[in-house]
Amino acid sequence: MTEERRSDPRVPVNLTAKWDGQSGEHEARIEDIGMGGCFVNTVSRVNLGEVIGLEINLPSGKWLRIRGEVITYHEAVGFGMVFTFLTEEVELALREIAG
After folding, report:
1. CB atoms < 10 A from the CB of 84, how many?
2. Which pLDDT belongs to residue 1?
3. Are strands 51-57 and 10-21 parallel, antiparallel or unpaired?
4. Alpha-carbon distance 1 to 4, whole Å?
5. Three-class SS of residue 86?
6. What is the pLDDT along the chain (99 residues), one digit of tens a residue?
7. Residue 53 needs a FRET pair 20 to 30 A away by CA distance; which of 7, 24, 37, 93 works?
8. What is the value of pTM for the model shown?
9. Measured distance CA(18)–CA(53) in Å, rounded
């Protein structure tokens, strides 16, 4: 069994998303999310340590914009990211999603 490295728990979700990084803008799905980060399901390539702009389509229909850093990458599957700066508005939206 692997040791859990996350300080914030994540909940499974299935949300449409878009992200932009060094390689341009890409479509994606968010598989899990928490107050500290999320997993972005995408076939597009990223680099570890890359700063990503992520937009998540919330159940309400609003788009939530978050910035973060890539901490894991799985080719043709997606990447894990940690959120680097959260405003109060973003924190409130994440609490609604992640509980």
Report:
1. 12
2. 35
3. antiparallel
4. 9
5. coil
6. 333 455 678 899 999 999 999 999 999 999 999 999 999 999 999 999 999 999 999 988 999 999 999 999 999 999 999 999 899 999 999 998 886
7. 7
8. 0.89
9. 8
Structure tokens at 14: 């299935």
Specify whether the CB–CB gap between 21 and 31 falls below 8 A: no
Q: Pick from 40, 51, 50: which is nearest to 74 by CA? A: 40
Q: Please give the distance of CA 45 from its chain centroid, rounded to a whole number.
A: 15
- Rounded Cα–Cα distance for residues 9 and 51 (Å): 22
What the block records as the tokens of 92 is 């409130």
Bridge pairing between strands 37-41 and 78-85? antiparallel
Q: Are 37 and 67 spatial neighbours (Cβ–Cβ below 8 Å)?
A: no
